[in-house]
């Protein structure tokens, strides 16, 4: 039996004629509406405040809704949903935004992972969009598959800027099974520490890990175990699940997912550039034979502790690395790729710049190298 969407409690919001409900979440309801003055359809999001909230909490939620809507409305990028209008009709606060026709990324993520080129392309687009948002002082705080729409022309669109910060309930007080977005939270979010743009970078790294491996970076039965793992555990190398994942891509993921924000990419633009390099490499590999490491999981486990100590010793003062600096195993895979017995693995000259950058990155620490890729 097909579910029937509830009838909207109003026919108009400002100049918008409300047609039907499209969906709802914990903090809002989205409607299909017609902008009669411009003769176009839009999506209208309303703020849904739980009845148990006090008047002060309601005012706080509304103030943040307005603040974040204005911030997102100032962003102009093909990878970010367009905000058309912010208004109020009686007790209803609403945002009018671009109506997207496409598929949520969560519906494309299947067991086994996405095609590598597609996954890297999506992540690169999201990173580029985040770089624009971060430059304007806007931090998303809720990067997850449900907030990324894949539209018909192949572009990824990022939605719902700032909504996570609006939620009045503290995720640490929730119990039971995982509820979705906590899976992609950064350690500082989980720990209740101040959050900046580097939190989005961690979340995107965690999302990319899942897109390419087919497994969440952190997956536990209850929320307490999940949050503890995000704070303290290092996930297996993505190639543990999918051996064809190249070490260059593992390094990007590992750097984005450093527990210590100071050891991550310091801007999303840098991550986008590295992902573009990975995508180009993957596209080239489609037409040439590839060499797969014989045991990436074993190599990962064997090298991470020793190389982490070396990296920690060489790191610049004030830039500590996490105890398990998990980029190093992927670098070892690059420096000592598996080969057919008795056969030297060919290394194109163009790869030298990439290897030098990766090796220097491990020795000097995240964010401390200015050598350009490629």
TrEMBL record:
<dbReference type="InterPro" id="IPR017441">
    <property type="entry name" value="Protein_kinase_ATP_BS"/>
</dbReference>
<keyword id="KW-0472">Membrane</keyword>
<keyword id="KW-0723">Serine/threonine-protein kinase</keyword>
<dbReference type="InterPro" id="IPR011009">
    <property type="entry name" value="Kinase-like_dom_sf"/>
</dbReference>
<keyword id="KW-1133">Transmembrane helix</keyword>
<feature type="transmembrane region" description="Helical">
    <location>
        <begin position="354"/>
        <end position="373"/>
    </location>
</feature>
<dbReference type="Pfam" id="PF00069">
    <property type="entry name" value="Pkinase"/>
</dbReference>
<feature type="binding site">
    <location>
        <position position="45"/>
    </location>
    <ligand>
        <name>ATP</name>
    </ligand>
</feature>
<keyword id="KW-0812">Transmembrane</keyword>
<dbReference type="GO" id="GO:0005524">
    <property type="term" value="F:ATP binding"/>
</dbReference>
<protein>
    <recommendedName>
        <fullName>non-specific serine/threonine protein kinase</fullName>
        <ecNumber>2.7.11.1</ecNumber>
    </recommendedName>
</protein>
<keyword id="KW-0418">Kinase</keyword>
<dbReference type="InterPro" id="IPR000719">
    <property type="entry name" value="Prot_kinase_dom"/>
</dbReference>
<keyword id="KW-0547">Nucleotide-binding</keyword>
<dbReference type="GO" id="GO:0004674">
    <property type="term" value="F:protein serine/threonine kinase activity"/>
</dbReference>
<dbReference type="InterPro" id="IPR008271">
    <property type="entry name" value="Ser/Thr_kinase_AS"/>
</dbReference>
<keyword id="KW-0067">ATP-binding</keyword>
<keyword id="KW-0808">Transferase</keyword>
<feature type="domain" description="Protein kinase">
    <location>
        <begin position="16"/>
        <end position="282"/>
    </location>
</feature>
């Amino acid at each position: 039996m097909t579910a029937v969407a509830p009838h909207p409690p109003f026919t108009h919001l400002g100049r918008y004629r409300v047609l039907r409900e499209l969906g709802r979440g914990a903090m809002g309801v989205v409607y299909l509406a017609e902008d009669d003055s411009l003769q176009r359809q839009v999506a209208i999001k309303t703020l849904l405040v739980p009845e148990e909230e006090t008047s002060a909490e309601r005012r706080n939620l509304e103030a943040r809704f307005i603040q974040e809507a204005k911030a997102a409305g100032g962003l102009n990028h093909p990878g970010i949903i367009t905000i058309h209008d912010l208004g109020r009709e009686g007790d209803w606060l609403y945002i009018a935004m671009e109506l997207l026709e496409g598929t949520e990324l969560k519906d494309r993520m299947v067991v086994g992972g996405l095609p590598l080129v597609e996954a890297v392309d999506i992540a690169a687009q999201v990173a580029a969009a985040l770089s624009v948002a971060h430059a304007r002082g806007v931090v998303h705080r809720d990067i997850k598959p449900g907030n990324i729409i894949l539209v018909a022309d192949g572009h990824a669109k990022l939605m719902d800027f700032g909504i996570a910060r609006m939620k009045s309930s503290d995720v640490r007080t929730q119990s039971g099974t995982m509820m979705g977005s906590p899976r992609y939270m950064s350690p500082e979010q989980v720990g209740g520490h101040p959050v900046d743009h580097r939190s989005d970078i961690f979340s995107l790294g965690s999302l990319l890990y899942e897109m390419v491996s087919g497994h969440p970076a952190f997956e536990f039965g209850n929320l307490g175990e999940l949050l503890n793992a995000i704070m303290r555990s290092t996930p297996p190398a993505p190639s543990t699940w999918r051996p064809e994942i190249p070490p260059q891509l593992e390094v990007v993921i590992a750097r984005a997912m450093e527990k210590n924000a100071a050891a991550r990419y310091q801007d999303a633009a840098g991550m986008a550039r590295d992902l573009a390099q990975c995508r180009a490499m993957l596209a080239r590999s489609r037409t040439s034979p590839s060499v797969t490491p014989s045991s990436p999981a074993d190599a990962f486990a064997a090298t991470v502790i020793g190389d982490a100590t070396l990296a920690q010793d060489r790191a610049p003062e004030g830039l500590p690395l996490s105890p398990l600096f998990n980029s190093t195993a992927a670098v070892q895979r690059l420096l000592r790729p598996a080969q057919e017995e008795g056969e030297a693995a060919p290394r194109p000259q163009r790869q030298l710049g990439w290897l030098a950058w990766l090796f220097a990155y491990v020795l000097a620490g995240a964010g401390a190298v200015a050598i350009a890729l490629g």
